[in-house]
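[recover] target loaded
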């Protein structure tokens, strides 16, 4: 039987840091208010498009796996913020990496996107259609935020994370997964006036409204992730006590802590890095995975549990058996182009544009 082993990993975080105090300089908020409700201290603001973030993360993942880009058979890019509607952002990553021929596509399951991509990529390898795949989660969600709204402006950040999947005969990689969508509540977390729902020529302001019902999202997120986690643990034939590390979607520290408590997992078995990056949507899980490896929190043969939820309301969970290697085979010098502006300077046009649009409506 074929399995899909995770052999490489990498991340990319833009250099411009937006602090809670920065947000307080133009919103009615404060560091205490944000941290007490979300656990977030800072987040990153990108000066480049999503595909560039994804490319840098992919280069680091390839180096960690000891592979050249031309050895990759496919790229799955999970994102809700692609560079353009068409062509795909994944095709830009393919071009940037110099891969002459590979199957590439974008996948949008919002914040659950990386888990969906990991499931699809693992299935492609297990079926024998491909031997090596890049699965990337990358977002530039701050490009779409309404910077006059405190409830959503404080939550999100930009970034990317990537893994390399390789065919293996050993029982490693994604051993069990459960994906789903609570579509009845799809409108409580949404950007409704977008895509073909957006009336052409009726908007000259570039303002996107975000539906965000926090309390209802909290309830459904904990329930969806908890139920999915229970299913995959049963599929894998293990219990919560066998899990070495929980890698949850980083949306809100309260959600993470509630999920961990529900599963009776102590803090030392839970990876949390939301304080530094906020919610990077499809990128949170792979970024957390990279940092867990960097901090020595994943040992050879470790059993990992990952869970996420996102707009839709998509949800998912997976059990991963880590392989024998926890250190990269190589390192890449890949980096984003220099950023000459602070996060506030990068956002200044958007902040003013949002204010102007609100005055005119």
């Amino acid at each position: 039987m074929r399995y899909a082993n995770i052999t490489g990993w990498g991340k990319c975080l833009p250099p411009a840091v937006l602090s809670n105090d920065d947000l307080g300089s133009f919103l009615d908020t404060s560091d205490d208010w944000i941290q007490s409700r979300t656990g977030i201290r800072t987040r990153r603001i990108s000066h480049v498009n999503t595909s560039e973030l994804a490319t840098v993360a992919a280069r680091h993942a390839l180096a960690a796996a000891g592979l050249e880009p031309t050895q990759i058979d496919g790229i799955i890019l999970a994102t809700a913020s692609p560079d353009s509607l068409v062509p795909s952002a994944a095709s830009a990553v393919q071009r940037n990496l110099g891969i002459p021929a590979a199957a590439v596509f974008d996948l949008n399951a919002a914040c659950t996107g990386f888990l969906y991509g990991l499931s699809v990529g693992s299935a492609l390898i297990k079926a024998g259609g491909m031997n090596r795949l890049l699965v990337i989660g990358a977002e530039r969600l701050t490009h779409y935020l309404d910077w006059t709204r405190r409830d959503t402006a404080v939550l999100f950040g930009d970034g990317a994370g990537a893994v390399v999947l390789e065919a293996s005969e050993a029982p490693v990689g994604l051993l069990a997964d459960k994906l789903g969508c609570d579509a009845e509540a799809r409108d409580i977390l949404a950007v409704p006036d977008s895509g073909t729902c957006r009336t052409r020529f009726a908007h000259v302001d570039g303002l996107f409204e975000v539906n965000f019902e926090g309390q209802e999202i909290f309830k459904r997120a904990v329930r969806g992730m908890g139920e999915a986690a229970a299913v995959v643990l049963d599929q894998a034939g293990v219990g919560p006590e066998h899990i070495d590390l929980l890698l949850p979607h980083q949306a809100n520290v309260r959600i993470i802590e509630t999920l961990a408590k529900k599963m009776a997992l102590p803090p030392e078995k839970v990876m949390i890095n939301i304080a530094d990056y906020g919610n990077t949507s499809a990128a949170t899980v792979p970024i957390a995975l990279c940092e867990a490896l960097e901090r020595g929190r994943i040992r050879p043969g470790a059993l990992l549990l990952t869970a996420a939820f996102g707009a839709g309301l998509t949800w998912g969970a997976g059990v991963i058996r880590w392989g024998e290697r926890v250190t990269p085979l190589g390192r890449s010098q890949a980096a984003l182009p220099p950023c000459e502006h602070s996060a506030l300077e990068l956002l200044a046009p958007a902040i003013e544009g949002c204010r102007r649009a609100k005055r005119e409506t």
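[recover] notes: The chain has a mean pLDDT of 95.
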